[in-house]
Design a protein that fits this description.
- α4 packs antiparallel against α7.
- This protein starts with a strand and ends in a 5-residue tail after the last helix.
- It has 2 domains: 290 residues, Alpha-Beta Complex (Spore Coat Polysaccharide Biosynthesis Protein SpsA, Chain A), CATH 3.90.550.10; 31 residues.
- A hairpin with a 4-residue loop joins β8 and β9.
- The chain has 327 residues and is α/β, with parallel strands linked by helices.
- Strands 3-2-1-4-7-6-10 form a 7-stranded mixed β-sheet, with helices on both faces. Strands 5-15-11 form a 3-stranded mixed β-sheet. Strands 12-13-14 form a 3-stranded antiparallel β-sheet, with no helix packed on it.
- The chain is globular and about 50 Å long.
- The protein has 11 helices and 15 strands.
- Helices cover 35% and strands 19% of the residues.
Amino acid sequence: MNIAFTICSNNYLAHAKTVGDSFLQFHPEFKFVIGLVDEVDNSIDYSQFSTFEIILLKDLKLSNLDLLVQKFNITELNTSVKPSFFKYFFEVLNASSVIYIDPDILVLSRFTEVVEMLKLTNIIITPHILTPVDDDFAPTDYHTLRGGVFNLGFLALSNYSKVKVFLDWWDARVIKYGFADFTKNMFYDQIWINYVPAFYDNYSILKHPGYNMSNWNLHERHLTFSDGNFVVNNNHPLRFFHFSSYDHTKPSIICAYQTRYNFDNRKDLTELFEKYQKLLLKNDIERIKKLRLFYFQKTANDKKNIRSLLKKIVRDLVRRIKTSLPL
């Protein structure tokens, strides 16, 4: 069995449906799964997602779930459980290969290269950029480096017996260090993938410019439209576009943190972004984005206080150990 999946909470289900529909359009032989980091909401008609399988985070039966909910914010929780979902698909559903795709992605053509590579390759990753960029705009290769050389909006794995060690190691690291904190060199689950080329042998760095096109590599990739398909640099079919930090309510902005381009100097992007916005609206994003998050009903101050308390507990434990005080 071949599985592709995304991870989200209830408020991102419009995005999940968009990426799932687009993936199955070109890969009907795959099972597409939504890993729902949330509880079932009775206000949602989940039948609209009937072409997918929805697996709740609690179905993974993680022994530390309550601690993770207290420890992380919503984005950190969604990313920190990614290795756990991979392991579930391999161990419980007996998948032979598994592809992860972020919910804010639109698939535009078949992953021909990936499907073939997975027959022999155990780990497939995509770099943020293929050429350097350093100017007065953002993001540059400096900004990108802080988040990791490789982008974890996409990850493909095969042959569980070969990748189990990788998944166990990655899982342990993100559960412990899965915060987004540049001051401590932490960036969700993504930063750890820098180690793949050093720690593992059967991996592939996919440099096809049609994969993971996004705001961070626009300096090296341009779109044209030919025979009903988007093409990158006049030569490569666009496999998927990653709409990182795109807000459909602000359609004139490519990305919240990207300052180099806009739709005036990148008219080649206009049609694609308009297409994506229409799909999100069709998939009821205006209502879905307002849905409650069962794991995160606390205020921002509550979450901040919890983190401060956890840090205080850790500091106290360290102090007691150093001074040999009884616990």
